[in-house]
Amino acid sequence: MVYLPGGTFTMGSNSAEGYPADGEGPARTVRVDPFRISAYAVTNAQFKAFADETGYVTEAERFGWSFVFHLFVPESAKLLADPAPSATPWWFAVNGACWFRPEGPGTGIADRMDHPVVHVSWHDAAAYCRWTGQRLPTEAEWEYAARGGLEGRTYPWGDLLKPEGAHRCNIWQGKFPVKNNAADGYAGTAPVDAYAPNGYSLYNMVGNVWEWCADWFSPAYHASTGRANPRFARPTGVRSMRGGSYLCHRSYCNRYRVAARSSNTPDSSTGNCGFRVAESLK
Ligand SMILES: [Ca+2]
């Protein structure tokens, strides 16, 4: 866990790069109290310790399926999968896919114990947090943390996606959704400590996996929450996610920016969403 002193920062973005429908702005000054946040997303090893000790069964396990990106789905599983959602035909609802079988039956996490856990719903993430005595970060805390002490920048390390040609996060290179040349080293998830950390020693705040936040999601977030420790608390049916994932590409989902936002229903799980944990100071 990394202690962050809190304070004021410019949250959100007015950039034309943003998605107005997501409510990334208007940018404004926000204050957050001191808190701690995990340097890394919760790993498969950590989630396994939780599941082993508590017997917790995730929602994907109970529902019997989860969304897997099409290029990772075995042909045999594709035949059994339900038709993909028409708006996002690259997602296959794969029977048996869950956190310890990320691509469905016959797949596993033995060689990915230091990768972020995926196929966890918001409810699953909240259950893990109850076990550790922690909580999910608010969106404001997450963005304060992701910015790493920089003011008004696009990424956790600055404004250039690849400073001096170096990959700084795990996103998509190539033609989405058909050809990922994985120039950054990873077609799927990367270890949670891959790439250089930001100025607060936090790893993979953008890219790799989406991270659930504590807030309900609303495009009116910036317009309707206060400036001190904001949190959108009115249920909207969808929970906030931050940071983008290994599937993000400029052409389709330019959301590997610190101000970018997205959402999903709290019982949903996918192969590209996980979480990190936070703590209030006693
Ligand atoms: Ca990648």
TrEMBL record:
<dbReference type="InterPro" id="IPR005532">
    <property type="entry name" value="SUMF_dom"/>
</dbReference>
<dbReference type="InterPro" id="IPR051043">
    <property type="entry name" value="Sulfatase_Mod_Factor_Kinase"/>
</dbReference>
<dbReference type="GO" id="GO:0120147">
    <property type="term" value="F:formylglycine-generating oxidase activity"/>
</dbReference>
<dbReference type="InterPro" id="IPR016187">
    <property type="entry name" value="CTDL_fold"/>
</dbReference>
<protein>
    <submittedName>
        <fullName>Formylglycine-generating enzyme family protein</fullName>
    </submittedName>
</protein>
<dbReference type="Pfam" id="PF03781">
    <property type="entry name" value="FGE-sulfatase"/>
</dbReference>
<feature type="domain" description="Sulfatase-modifying factor enzyme-like">
    <location>
        <begin position="1"/>
        <end position="278"/>
    </location>
</feature>
<dbReference type="InterPro" id="IPR042095">
    <property type="entry name" value="SUMF_sf"/>
</dbReference>
